[in-house]
Design goal:
SH3 type barrels, Alpha-Beta Plaits, 3 domains, five-stranded antiparallel β-sheet, three-stranded antiparallel β-sheet, 8 helices
Length: about 290
């Protein structure tokens, strides 16, 4: 058994033994575990306690993990493959670049894009983003892909290259404050100043609406069947659940309109008949 473990096999400039390969794989496993431990320690405990945001802590932890892996691999290769040196590394990298140019281009693009995301941080863990028709919160950024969780608690795996080469809307890039616009129509007989008062009182009563920036009510247009208003409010707590905030404010708007006797009209169409065949009397109905 000992003879088999120390038996030498020559491949070009490399002389390896089963023992060196086994030791190398064990060391790689230990380095991988160490990198994962350091990443979690920095991202989940040390950096958040230092006051850094979740996104920054995750980015720094990931970069530290990758650095440990790189240093570990470069240190283990000479043990695993006696005769390995930097000239050999240059040759291997050249072969890898040739292979990447043909079959691994997408994988390389996603990996480089992942490094860009971690360094530039246009998107961070915890951000609320829109990519194409996908909207959700970033829960993890890895070397090849990013995980986005929707409001239905479904995790979508998005290749990192889409964040670098495509158009991404980050709803919480600088801070979590997001403005919501809520249109509402009222009857033409309504007092517009009373409508403005009711809308602002509804916004003030909403627990998830910010006091600053202050809510605003805008009289936008004279519509076909209604006076068209828009309530504009800011929130930093329900930005990831826009429908929940709209529902909360709409309930309060309805209560304020009932309080002040403000009516929301139905669409109205008037039918005017000038002449009916046969000269018979006609009853004209107006549907509201």
């Amino acid at each position: 058994m000992a003879d088999w473990l120390t038996r030498e096999y020559v491949f070009g400039n490399f002389t390896i033994t089963p023992l060196s390969v086994l030791v190398g794989f064990l060391l790689l496993l230990l380095v991988s575990v160490l990198a994962s431990f350091v990443k979690k320690l920095l991202a989940q405990r040390l950096l958040p306690r230092a006051g850094l945001s979740v996104g920054v802590a995750n980015a720094v932890g990931s970069l530290a993990g990758y650095f440990i892996l790189l240093v570990g691999i470069l240190s283990i290769l000479p043990v695993m493959l006696p005769g390995f040196n930097f000239a050999t590394l240059t040759l291997i990298l050249g072969a890898l670049s040739f292979g990447i140019g043909f079959g691994l281009r997408n994988v390389a693009d996603n990996f480089v894009s992942g490094l860009i995301l971690l360094l530039e941080r246009p998107v961070k863990v915890g951000d609320r983003i829109v990519v194409g028709d996908l909207e959700g919160s970033v829960v993890d950024i890895r070397a090849r892909s990013t995980t986005v969780r929707t409001n239905d608690n479904i995790d979508i795996i998005v290749p990192n290259a889409e964040f670098v080469s495509g158009r991404v809307t980050n709803l919480s890039h600088n801070d979590n404050r997001v403005r919501f616009k809520m249109p509402v129509g009222v009857h033409y007989n309504s007092d517009v100043h009373l409508v403005e008062k009711a809308l602002l009182e509804a916004a003030a009563a909403a627990p998830h609406v910010l006091k600053q920036p202050a809510p605003a009510a805008r009289f936008l247009a004279f519509g076909d069947s209604a006076l068209e208003f828009e309530l504009r409010v800011w929130s930093d707590t329900l930005f990831e659940k826009p429908n929940a905030l709209r529902s909360e404010v709409n309930f309060l708007i309805w209560e304020m309109f009932k309080k002040y006797g403000i009516q929301i009209p139905y669409p109205q169409r008037d039918l005017h008949v000038k002449e009916w065949p046969g000269g018979k009397p006609v009853t004209v109905l107006t549907e509201n």
